């Protein structure tokens, strides 16, 4: 059984590739290396450098490798930047997904696991986000992910495509030291970069209505996330009915202050974070329930906050 992983040279995608190999599923990677790294792909895993916008390349890759399913992670992923580059975001995330589905239909590839995002919810007005929570994206990025889900839904109705979409929040940590988060926007690499460069990390706002006054968010270890993709792929391959979307969440979340404390403990670098004003639009708490994924995919979080921070620090030191 072979599955194609789009974006398989990225931080998340490379962990998914390794999880598939460990599960006995042969992966093939397609990535344009706009944010991924060729070195993240094992030498013995087939690698195709190319764009989701190249339908012919997609179809050829699917056919040549006899692909039975796709994990679709590739896309433009920076929500804040998407506000300034909406057309680019839609081209990469919506047009790219449509062309992938076109190529899959041409090659009779029957299944896809879509990497969606909690950004589809915007700023929910509930304490615990479930799959029934109303979607209200607040950025072109979030909107593009929601449209991607719609494309899968409609293609499923039209062709019988088996599909599910995984919505998740903040992905952190490392499953192995050679793979690490290189995003210039994510909290963990920003904090670790600051500490290693002798700067003091910053907290934006300490007067939120939360236990310690700082924002509470859902964080998920990248290895746990990769396992969810394996479980979804196996279920789709077996023809097991799945829900259209699943949240991958902790159910309780952690605060920015807790993360800072864990960072000091893991790195051995004591610091007191600088306090900056709130950022406009930052909600006090966004936490999701993972109960549906636990029920249908047998998925659960296995890594603690300490695990997440320690593994991220180990990978940062290795590079």
Automatic annotation (TrEMBL):
Its EC number is 5.1.3.2. GO terms for molecular function: UDP-glucose 4-epimerase activity. It is an enzyme of class 5 (isomerase). SUPFAM superfamilies: NAD(P)-binding Rossmann-fold domains. It comes from the Bacteria. It holds the Pfam family Epimerase. This is UDP-glucose 4-epimerase. Belongs to the NAD(P)-dependent epimerase/dehydratase family. Keywords: Carbohydrate metabolism, Isomerase, NAD. The lineage of its organism: Bacteria, Bacillati, Actinomycetota, Actinomycetes, Micrococcales. It catalyses: UDP-alpha-D-glucose = UDP-alpha-D-galactose. Residues 4-249 form the NAD-dependent epimerase/dehydratase domain.
């Amino acid at each position: 059984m072979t599955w194609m992983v789009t974006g398989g040279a990225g931080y998340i995608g490379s962990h998914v590739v390794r999880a598939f190999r460990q599960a006995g599923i042969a992966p093939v990677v397609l990535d344009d290396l706009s944010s991924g790294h060729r070195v993240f792909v094992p030498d013995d895993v087939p690698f195709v450098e190319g764009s989701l916008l190249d339908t012919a390349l997609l179809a050829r890759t699917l056919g040549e490798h006899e692909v039975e399913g796709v994990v679709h992670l590739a896309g433009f992923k920076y929500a804040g930047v998407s506000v300034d580059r909406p057309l680019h975001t839609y081209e990469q995330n919506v047009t790219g997904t449509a062309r992938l589905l076109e190529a899959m239909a041409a090659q009779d590839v029957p299944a896809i696991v879509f990497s969606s995002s909690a950004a589809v919810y915007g700023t929910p007005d509930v304490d615990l986000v479930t799959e029934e929570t109303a979607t209200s994206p607040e950025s072109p990025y979030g909107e593009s992910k929601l449209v991607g889900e719609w494309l899968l839904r409609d293609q499923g109705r039209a062709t019988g495509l088996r599909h599910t979409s995984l919505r998740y929040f903040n992905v952190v940590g490392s499953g192995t030291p050679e793979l690490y988060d290189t995003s210039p926007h994510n909290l963990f690499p920003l904090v670790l970069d600051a500490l290693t460069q002798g700067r003091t990390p910053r907290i934006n706002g300490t007067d939120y209505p939360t236990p310690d006054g700082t924002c509470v968010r859902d964080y998920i270890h990248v290895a746990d996330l990769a396992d969810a993709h394996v479980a979804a792929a196996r279920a789709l391959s077996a023809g097991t009915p799945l829900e259209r979307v699943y949240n991958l969440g902790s159910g309780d979340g952690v605060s920015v202050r807790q993360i800072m404390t864990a960072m000091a403990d893991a790195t051995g670098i004591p610091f007191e974070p600088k306090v900056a004003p709130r950022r406009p639009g930052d909600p006090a708490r966004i936490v999701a329930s993972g109960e549906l994924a636990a029920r249908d995919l047998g998925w659960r979080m296995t890594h603690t906050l300490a695990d997440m921070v320690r593994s991220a620090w180990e990978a940062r030191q290795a590079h």
